[in-house]
Design goal:
It is built from ten helices and no strands. It has about 240 residues and is an all-alpha fold. It is globular and about 50 Å long.
Length: about 240
């Protein structure tokens, strides 16, 4: 499906993207900090500026080069019904999660998204083949998100903007729960992330398959340390 950027996004598609980015989506994203809780404990993130800088690094180093780049490819694969490519991308996610916590998050959120999609589209014969292929993978969250977004008329760039903003909002909420930051500080952090998301999306779209990567050794170390952290609120 070719998406014309000059055409206004239909209301149904816009609302679907907003829905997918919402923390209220029942996929369990609120229960993960993706290493942030461990960074607060072990690296000493102790201020609004430090948290914002850390999350900006995560956006550009891990999200744009990894999951966002994969979602850009997976969205097209779902729209072409290229099940083989979808499976290859799903395998890439599983093979590049460097700790058990990060893999657990990808798998649990992927299953929850697949369940949600099954409930949403159980009477839609046109979409159920894709939903069944997703459930059979078993699904990871980036691939499941791409499947959900592929049902809209949104451009790949708009899909990535929605995904990244949903990620950013979850991370800011994790920071507010983990340390002494007020709501105003959280909104300032979110504003910095929102300013950076369009460039991250453009970077992700421009990457070739051979350039996609999940190399973030410090994040992997922090994730591994989180597994044995004495006091914690989050599953990652």
């Amino acid at each position: 499906m070719r998406i014309d950027r000059a055409t206004p996004l239909p209301a149904a598609s816009l609302l679907q993207l907003i829905w997918l980015a919402s923390p209220a989506l029942p996929v369990g994203g609120f229960s993960y900090s993706e290493g942030l809780e461990s960074a607060i404990e072990n690296v000493g993130l102790a201020s609004e500026a430090a948290v914002a800088d850390w999350l900006l690094d995560q956006l550009h180093i891990t999200q744009a080069r990894g999951d966002m780049a994969l979602i850009a490819k997976a969205t097209g694969a779902w729209r072409r019904a290229d099940w083989a490519h979808v499976r290859e991308l799903n395998d890439w996610v599983l093979h590049t999660r460097e700790t058990s916590e990060l893999r657990l998050q990808a798998e649990q959120m992927g299953r929850s998204m697949a369940d949600w999609l099954r409930n949403q589209y159980q009477d839609d014969e046109a979409l159920m083949p894709a939903v069944r292929n997703l459930a059979a993978l078993p699904p990871t969250y980036p691939v499941a998100f791409a499947m959900a977004a592929s049902t809209t008329q949104a451009s790949v760039r708009d899909v990535l903007l929605a995904y990244a903003f949903g990620w950013a909002e979850n991370m800011v909420q994790a920071a507010l729960k983990s340390m002494q930051l007020g709501q105003s500080a959280g909104q300032r952090i979110l504003a910095r992330l929102a300013d950076a998301i369009p460039a991250a999306a453009d970077h992700a779209i421009a990457l070739m398959d051979s350039e996609r990567q999940a190399f973030s050794p410090m994040l992997a170390i922090l994730s591994a340390r989180h597994e044995v952290q004495y006091s914690r609120l989050f599953r990652s």
